[in-house]
Sequence to fold (387 residues):
Amino acid sequence: MVLFGATGFTGRLTAHYLARQAPPGLRWALAGRDARKLAALRSELAATHPALADLPLLEADVTDGAALRQLAASARVVATTVGPYIRYGHALVAACADTGTDYLDISGEPEFVDLTYLRCHERARRTGARLVHSCGFDSIPYDLGVRLTVERLPEGVPLRVDGFVRSNAGLSGGTFSSALLAFARGRRMARTARERRRADPRPPGRTVRTPVDRIRRGADQGDWAVPLPTIDPRVVGRSAAALERYGPDFRYRHYAAVRHLPTVVGGVAGLGTLALLAQHPSTRRLLMSRLAPGEGPDAARRARSWFSARFVGTGGGRRVVTEVSGGDPGYDETAKFLAESALCLALDGGLPETSGQVTTAAAMGEALTARLVRAGVRFDVREEGPA
Fold:
């Protein structure tokens, strides 16, 4: 197993998690473009885990296709934290698709995921590679939380699930840069999404919808429900399309749960302003300079951070509520999500037979949920009787 981008902000957290949690027999390596930084990270890990003093280091740049192909061919699983993926991710995922190597990332970038499907899905199906995007806070809590909710609802009936997320987490430079780039590429993102829809077959005889709702009050425990047009509902929808258990007619809506109306107004206005400023290269560069890639919340700030994602599912006269919760979502928990996903693909038997571009729910489902529960992520499910 290879961790690519190990010296970045999230990469380092993932490396430290693997140092603590990877089983002794696992052969894994750190990879990136700077051999000196990789060696320094290995020394840091070995200071508390002496057995890692000889951990392999693989040097490769995102622009070196031959080196990335060699890296992919040497591994069963490659997990990468190098973003923005629309700029830096294509060569590595293509190398994995070509060599039959399982690939994971923490991308929340819809354009990159859609382009990967268009360029690499069929190749990966032929080689047997599993290409699993969004293995961080985008979008594991939602994908697995909805899956768990659906499994407690009746089979063969229309199902409705609404998801509500809360968090107090900080932001890293890499995430900020990815968001600004997505705002700047809005038209290209929409065009690629249309191409993906034309190429992606719909499930025969079944309907899957992930509509964007309006802002509304009282949708979940009295909070304001603010629609979140992120990649998360798209991932849930693709899991629903892949798995018949989601029923003949499935709908998922995705919201932020916000306590006070001024917070809603301020957040919407702030995102609108940010999207406008991101259209101009000069202001985009200025914004990126305020929080550079590789920077993020310190350990004390992350220790105070938390998230909670609540899913309310109905169908067949039943109502099920699932809550997925944990610590700092963007970094500590994202490192955990990515590492456990990679360990799941590398080590766990009995996983579903999948290949091509697949979701965490379709490729790992129950096995990954069990891993995350053991790792301290809470999945609480309760049936509340008739809807």
